[in-house]
Design a protein that fits this description.
By secondary structure, the protein is an alpha+beta fold. The chain has 25 helices and 20 strands.
């Protein structure tokens, strides 16, 4: 006696044999269904069950692509992203009406036959033969599930999708063989569950849970009769029966499903009639996908997390491997973003720079000693509506991670020069003549035994004519004296500086190496705010540099199980001795206490930092830190077109923008908020001997509190006779190349930065 299956019918092997026999007798049943005029069935036409059995029967079911949740450090949701909007649910969490509706309309004999419905095959074959075209198919729900697996496996590759859905005998036969395997291994209920989770319901909704949320804003378990019928009807043709765009057609299709449900006894005729009278009852929830959904102004940070995932080999050897995991989704990514710090970043930006301003700002905060990025934001909102001022360009990061070409850091680079000098044995008391203006010393030692030579007689100048040395390192740093730092780098050589920068993670935003030129001391190389914040974190952690990280942990849901993924770890290394770092901290503490960064200083706790203003004021910076957090703020025109002269920013007019005047207060406010409620930590300071007689051989720079307009912002005001604006206007220093400007050939290959207008860095 033939072995019966629990649901009735023959065993899988017997079904295959019987099916093939019918196929041969019918002149290729699948060919008749799928391709009307074909006269052979390929393998089946050979007339042997053995040939069919030789086909591989391993269905590698791909994990269904699902939503990915990006969380902050405390577990709060930042954003939801997905390649396909899908939430996998168990059959018990799907309305019984939905289960019955899909079976009734797609495969009413689902529980009676095996992988292949032989009655359905013969019926379809007969009907198609009479009509001369494919007017009816015979695929069972199981076969449809197998086809959907092929489509899911193809992902978004149009070629693979076409191959997965092509109407060929070979694909049909393979689909059949795998359907038999699936029936044998999974059983009816699991097949139905998988089918309802994998199939496409239109409107970007994959799986019944996403469909229920999309069309009715409810869970699949709560669907009623008419809602279930509507969704079941969509599956055959999601575009044709789309209820959002064609309510009439969708209603007709829904009613067809209701009629079929009554015919097979799933519901009574009265229930069907009542449901047909009901409106569609749509309550559409528009799909919200990607970093555009980010809260707390974290859209750019969200994008950075995505860039990290797609670029880091820890998530896969190739870009394709990493993209496959990302698109598959089902990830829960806990990031390093601190809610308090992020809120403070956004609030400070909002208070000081308007989205409608001609220039923008970007700010980033990192944690010294760990490399954790705890805050990241900018004044231009995240999005693609250019007319509304939106952008997806992350102004805080390097080009490879979704940023631009970077911006000249100006004098914020000087502490790196100081660190290189001190690490090499130079005392912080070192004094230089530091004239108001001078030619670049030449030659200057560079790496690999080479020398930089000032062949063009390039000159530079300080911000004000009153800035005349001698200066020691402490005062030169507080006042940001250009000529002091050029004399310093010319003395120690360029190579120690670029090597120190490398140890501190300072790289050009475009990925190129730092240039071997003494003008690097004045910040002519374009970098990103994240780079500078993380570099200064090295000072805060007493010389330990840690690579920046944005991801704490990742778990991935595959089916009903979760697993942890390996994530990138911060790598920490000693960039300089503790003594060197402590010395720089002492220097930079003086900047915020009695130098150009006074407006950024924190009243409640020790802080240190440095201002920076670039050529013709296209950008201004403040980079600073406490022992607990380090942050960088950049303000400027991302297009490098608007000079920050005679400009209003955040409702405040500025004759000239300095690093201490605009970025400084942004930094001060954001750091105060980020650290509110946290214990106060102290720096390890050192005693720096006086390296000169304070006033010998130089003019009086005047009382810093009595400076005029722009120079008061800079913290280097004069006493009314030259200190306020005399050096800026009378010297003609904004015109580059004359009276202290840098000649264009000095900054070769600098892109937007090297425009030959240097010489004015606070």
């Amino acid at each position: 006696m033939p072995k019966k299956r629990s649901g009735g019918g023959l065993s899988p092997t017997q079904q295959a044999a019987k099916f093939l026999g019918v196929s041969v007798l019918a002149g290729a049943v699948l060919a008749g269904i799928a391709l009307p005029a074909v006269g052979a069935l390929g393998l089946a036409a050979k007339g042997s069950v053995e040939s069919f059995d030789a086909l591989p029967a391993n269905l590698k079911t791909p994990p269904l692509s699902q939503r990915t949740a990006i969380l902050d450090a405390e577990g709060g949701t930042i954003a939801t992203v997905y390649s396909r909007d899908r939430t996998v649910v168990a059959l018990k969490d799907i309305s019984p009406y939905m289960q019955k509706a899909i079976v009734a309309i797609e495969d009413s004999r689902f529980y009676e036959h095996g992988a292949v419905d032989l009655k359905g095959v013969l019926r379809a074959l007969n009907k198609n033969a009479r009509s001369g075209e494919v007017s009816e198919g015979a695929s069972t729900l199981t076969q449809q599930y197998v086809k959907n697996v092929f489509v899911e496996e193809a992902g978004d590759d149009p070629t693979k999708v076409a191959q997965a859905t092509q109407q060929t005998i070979g694909r049909k036969i393979r689909e059949l063989k795998l359907a038999i395997q699936v029936e044998e291994e999974l059983g009816k209920k699991k097949i139905l569950e998988n089918y309802l989770n994998i199939t496409f319901f239109g409107q970007q909704a994959y799986g019944v849970e996403a469909a229920a949320q999309r069309y009715f804003s409810k869970s699949a378990k709560d669907l009623n009769i008419q809602e279930s019928a509507l969704l079941a009807g969509i599956v055959q043709s999601p575009s044709r029966y789309d209820p959002v765009n064609d309510e009439a057609e969708a209603t007709k299709r829904r009613n067809v499903v209701l009629t079929r449900m009554a015919q097979v006894g799933d519901i009574s005729q009265a229930e069907a009639d009542k449901a047909k009278e009901a409106p569609l009852g749509l309550k559409v929830s528009r799909p919200k996908n990607g970093c555009i959904t980010a809260v707390k102004g974290a859209g750019f940070f969200c994008d950075y997390v995505r860039a990290v995932f797609l670029s880091d080999p820890v998530f896969g050897k190739t870009k394709e491997d990493r993209a496959k995991i990302w698109n598959q989704g089902g990830l829960t990514i806990r990031t390093t973003l601190d809610p308090q710090a992020q809120k403070s970043v956004q609030q400070s930006i909002k208070d000081h720079v308007y989205t409608s301003d001609e220039v923008a700002t970007a700010a980033t905060i990192v944690e010294p000693g760990t490399g954790k990025i705890v805050g990241m934001g900018q004044s231009r909102p995240y999005g693609i509506d250019v007319k509304q001022g939106e952008t997806t360009l992350n102004l805080s990061v390097n080009n490879a991670m979704g940023g631009g070409a970077g911006y000249q850091p100006g004098s914020t680079f000087k502490p790196i020069v100081a660190a290189a000098a001190i690490e090499g044995g130079m005392p912080a008391s070192k004094s230089y003549s530091s004239p108001y203006e001078m030619e670049y010393p030449s030659p200057v030692a560079a790496c690999e035994g080479k020398n930089w030579v000032n062949t063009e007689g390039a000159e530079l100048a300080n911000e004000n004519e009153t800035e005349v040395g001698p200066y020691d390192m402490e005062e030169a740093t507080a006042k940001s004296v250009n000529t002091y730092y050029v004399q310093l780098i010319s003395d120690i050589g360029i190579c120690p500086v670029t090597q120190m920068a490398d140890k501190m993670g300072v790289q050009r935003a475009n990925g190129n190496k730092l240039e071997q030129t003494p003008s690097i001391a004045l910040g002519v190389t374009e970098v990103s705010p994240l780079t500078m914040a993380n570099a200064y974190a090295t000072f805060a952690s007493r010389g330990m540099y840690c690579t920046p990280i944005a991801i704490e942990s990742i778990s991935q849901r595959v089916g009903n199980k979760s697993k942890s993924l390996e994530v990138p770890k911060s790598t920490c290394s000693r960039a300089m001795s503790e003594t060197t770092a402590d010395t720089v901290n002492t220097l930079l503490k003086g900047v915020v206490e009695d130098g150009t960064g006074r407006e950024a200083g924190l009243d409640s706790r020790p802080s240190a930092g440095k201002t920076g203003t670039t050529d013709e004021r296209y950008a201004a910076w403040f980079v600073g830190y406490t022992p607990d957090l380090a942050g960088a703020v950049w303000v400027g025109d991302p297009k490098h077109e608007r000079k920050m002269v005679d400009i209003t920013i955040g409702g405040v007019p500025h004759g000239k923008v300095f690093g201490g005047a605009v970025p400084g207060p942004i930094w001060g406010d954001m750091m105060s908020g980020a650290l509110e409620g946290e214990p106060v930590s102290e720096f390890n300071l050192v005693d720096i001997p006086d390296g000169k007689e304070k006033d010998k051989g130089r003019g009086d720079s005047g009382d810093r509190d009595d400076g005029g307009n722009g120079d008061e912002d800079n913290g280097d005001g004069g006493n009314g006779d030259g200190g306020a604006i005399g050096g800026l206007i009378d010297g003609g220093t904004d015109n580059g190349g004359t009276d202290g400007g840098f000649p264009g050939n000095l900054f070769q290959g600098q892109g937007n930065g090297g425009n030959g207008i240097g010489g004015r860095r606070d």
